[in-house]
């Protein structure tokens, strides 16, 4: 057609490396947290050590010496085989991430792996290589990071102790009510009327 300008088309070569030496993951933060990576001066990431929770209470029992039980491990293994229980091995790479960011104040986040994100779709990270081509790296896992709670939960004894103190806390509204009732009594006394008191209760 006359007068139509020829559109310039630029082609890029996308290369997917076969031998991946690095694994790429996605870190996802909630928008309400206002996470700004530019303000971070130092970042430390490590896997959470859940070995104690994984082993459970039974594994903490002594194997030898005082308090141990002869043949307990063999009997437990035989019981598992009989019931068809296959015990999974502890994998450190499957544990959540613990992230510490330093920007004036230290903030701690816990990254939990999200399942089902890459089941029906494949996601890639595109980077420019030195020879001008584009390298595509597949994303392996998606992690959702949430701030770790700084406060400590009360135990049953501490909660009961705090619950017993609930009546000792001052209530502003009850103080105002008492003051108002006391003011009404003083006004009645000034007028020369007697207030009736029965069993220690004040009449309005």
From TrEMBL:
GO terms for molecular function: DNA binding; RNA polymerase II general transcription initiation factor activity; TFIIF-class transcription factor complex binding. SUPFAM superfamilies: Rap30/74 interaction domains (SSF50916). It comes from the Eukaryota. It is found in: Nucleus. It holds the Pfam family TFIIF_alpha. InterPro entries: TFIIF-alpha, TFIIF_interaction. Keywords: DNA-binding, Nucleus, Transcription, Transcription regulation. The keyword Transcription regulation applies. Residues 184-204 are annotated as: Disordered. One of its GO terms (cellular component) is transcription factor TFIIF complex. GO terms for biological process: positive regulation of transcription elongation by RNA polymerase II; transcription initiation at RNA polymerase II promoter. Its main location: nucleus. Belongs to the TFIIF alpha subunit family. TFIIF is a general transcription initiation factor that binds to RNA polymerase II and helps to recruit it to the initiation complex in collaboration with TFIIB. It promotes transcription elongation. This is Transcription initiation factor IIF subunit alpha. It comes from Ignelater luminosus (Cucubano). The lineage of its organism: Eukaryota, Metazoa, Ecdysozoa, Arthropoda, Hexapoda.
């Amino acid at each position: 057609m006359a007068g139509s300008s020829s559109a310039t088309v630029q082609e890029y070569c996308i290369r997917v490396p076969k031998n991946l030496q690095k694994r790429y993951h996605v870190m996802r933060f909630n928008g309400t947290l206002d996470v700004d990576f530019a303000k971070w001066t130092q970042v430390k990431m490590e896997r959470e050590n859940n070995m104690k929770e994984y082993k459970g209470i039974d594994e903490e029992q002594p194997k030898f010496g005082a308090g141990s039980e002869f043949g307990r491990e063999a009997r437990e293994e035989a019981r598992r085989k009989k019931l068809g229980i296959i015990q999974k091995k502890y994998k450190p790479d499957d544990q959540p991430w613990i992230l510490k960011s330093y920007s004036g104040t230290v903030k701690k986040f816990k990254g939990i792996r999200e399942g089902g994100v890459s089941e029906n779709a494949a996601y890639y990270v595109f980077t420019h290589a030195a020879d001008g081509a584009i390298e595509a790296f597949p994303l392996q896992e998606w992690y959702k990071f949430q701030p770790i709670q700084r406060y400590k939960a009360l135990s049953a004894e501490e909660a009961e102790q705090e619950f017993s103190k609930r009546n000792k806390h001052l209530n502003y509204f009850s103080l105002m009510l008492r003051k108002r009732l006391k003011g009404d009594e003083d006004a009645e006394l000034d007028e020369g009327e007697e207030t009736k008191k029965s069993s220690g209760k004040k009449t309005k």
